[in-house]
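2024-03-11 09:14:02 DEBUG pipeline.ingest accepted 1 chain
2024-03-11 09:14:02 DEBUG pipeline.ingest length=552
2024-03-11 09:14:03 DEBUG pipeline.predict start
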Amino acid sequence: MEFRKVMSRTTRSGSTAVKRIAATVLLAAALVTMTAADQVSTQTVSQSRGKILIHSVTLGKNSHLVSDVRLAKILRTDGYRVHLLVGTDGGHWDELDKTFDVVHRFPSAGKSGTPEIDYLKMALEWSSMTAYEMTMSLADELLRQCDTLLRHPNTLADIQREKYDLVISDFFDNCGRIVSEYLDIPTIAYSASGMMFDIAFFPDMPSFIPTYMSPYDPGEMTFGERLQNVFEYVVSKVVWRHGWFRRFQLLREKYHMNASLDIENSYLRALIFVRSDFVLDYPRPLMPNVVTIEGIFNDDPKPLPRNIATFVDGAGSDGIIVVCFGTMLGHLDERRTELFARVLARFPQRVVWRLTGARPASLGTNTLIVDWLPQNDLLRHASTRLFVSHCGLSSIMEAALNAVPVVAMSICTDGFQNARKLRRVGMAFMLDFKTLTEDSLENAIWEVLNDPRYKRNASRVAALLNDTLVPPCEKFLYYVGYAIRHDGATHLQAGVLQNLNQWQLFNYDVTAIVLSVLVVALFTAGGVLWLCIKVTRRCCSALKSAYKEHAQ
């Protein structure tokens, strides 16, 4: 009897164990199935993200093209397939082919990507030009590149057969307007140069917004400066319209690629992504289709290359100075190269200097020269005390986001305005690159290193820039998907700018009519009053005469 009870309990126990094991197996199988389903779902989502074409500026290995490479990396991590359209002058560097799924290259016409071009000489020439001359010079190069693209219709036909979901065009190159209209797909115009002088960033307010190359600060202009700013604004609009847009309009018509919109208005139908933040930038109204993406490239720091890391780690408490003049200006002329080498050798800080070409004879033992440097990673390093820069937009954003004071020496184009923005927030000392001397450079570096206000202001700006509701990368990816999902988000069009001329936009016509009515009313009232006074005087005179006659 006891034996049966024991066996019965054993049997029930074994049965329970079997059930538990079976349940565990079934649960594990369900989890595996769910995981596999999730993976399949993830892969499906990833594969269905879409295919994007980036049309970049063809001017050698330039900062805009480097910026597009960084955009492509962000897009690819989110599952997009990304192709690039660029001229052969863009160069054949490994990162292009590694980053993009496909690189479409069209034959280029200029020398912008060849060793013969002297970018420093070109930049200095630009800095001495008038706004009109510089616009013509840039337009000439970009027109040549665009002409070679349109001259080879097979290139665009092959691209159209790819059936892209979205095209991202560089705002700086008007050829992107022609390409996006030809493809007739949702478009994002990406401005790697901040708020540019263009109808897409209307309404412009010259009363408090300085023109693109203006030396004035917003809200602090005197009457004379505002008068000058308005004059420059009007001249710039004429130059921009006839020296820039009209020439691309004629090129489009040459190849019978007309569209319903004038080329100047074409981006009113696109989303505009602009690398800017009002912590640094001038206050201004923006249309709904303009999206600021601020510190999109301020990603997590990566380990420094071994040679740079070893050099930086040995700097001690004095820290390091980073010297870099952008992607295109790897070298300086011999006089300035030796000047920099002599001055930098006098400081206790170690210096990491991006310089291509011959090593200067005056190079100090505290200076490491490299052909390339990871600028953002270096600026984020705890040992970095100062950044000597030409003030391209990427450079000033990275310096500001990482709270690094700047010795700013702009060379051309938007660098002057970028430098003024840093000086305006108190984190930069400006120098004139053309008239640079050893004393002026040494004094500027000593001042920024020793005056705590520069670092304090840089830290304040960095805190403001990094205090965002949504991380910039997430914001960027959201609006890319938004443009694809909503067929270009045409409901955000700034069509009002297309339908209104300047007189209507600022109510000058209404003001003119109101003033005209007031003037007419005043003249009428004045006339009536004058008539009443005249009649009254005559009546008084008649009564006076009658009274005199009666008195006699």
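2024-03-11 09:14:41 DEBUG pipeline.report Residues 507-552 form one domain.
2024-03-11 09:14:41 DEBUG pipeline.predict end
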